[in-house]
Amino acid sequence: MVVVGDTERVFDSDGxxxxxxxxxxxxxxxxxxxxxxxxxxxxxxxxxxxxxxxxQPPVVYEVAxxxxxxxxxxxxxxxxxxxxxxxxxxxxxxxxxxxxALVSVxxxxxxxxxxxxxxxxxTVLTPFITLSALGSILGLxxxxxxxxxxxxxxxxxxxxxxxxxxxxxxLIASSALMKDINExxxxxxxxxxxxxxxxxxxxxxxxxxSFARTPASARPGRAPxxx
Length: 227
Description:
Radius of gyration: 21 Å
Largest sheet: 3 strands, antiparallel
Shape: globular
Helix content: 55-70%
Strand content: 5-15%
Order of helices and strands: EEHHHHHHHHE
Low-confidence stretches: 1-12, 17-22, 210-227
Number of strands: 3
Number of domains: 1
């Protein structure tokens, strides 16, 4: 069991007592992991539906950009005390991206029809949509560099956030090439990007919470049980 913002005594399979410690950074990282999985799922769902059934589910693709900056902010939270200037720059970029994403989504659903970009048209929302995407990528890259340096994610996963950020623009650029091969493959890069975000979110969530195995007698205010 996990108690958010507190500690909870638990027992593992060996009967060893321990404590889950959940602080603000842990909650932030957990929320970021969930956001990455949801945003990635929305993109992957949109791409898969278009590739298989040539049908785009409503809403999911348009709202997905709201979740990606939250994922970057959560990744920043997983750094614990290793928050360098580079990481803070990534956090700022993600914060700006989130504001732009909120403006673009509200504009798409609440604004007039002429605000919605179609094809090569540029509307009042185009700068916000562009800044949301670029801000999320830049934020993920900067925070990902720090994650790699500090090994804030376990094992080889420490390289994954930076790798995702580096891969996004080439994947998007490859869409035209995919379309030349087969029209259905136009959405393949979007599917891959969505899956990458989902994997990143799963890694972030799986990492948390950390289990500190602490004898029950060592907890403050607890007397050892009599034998």
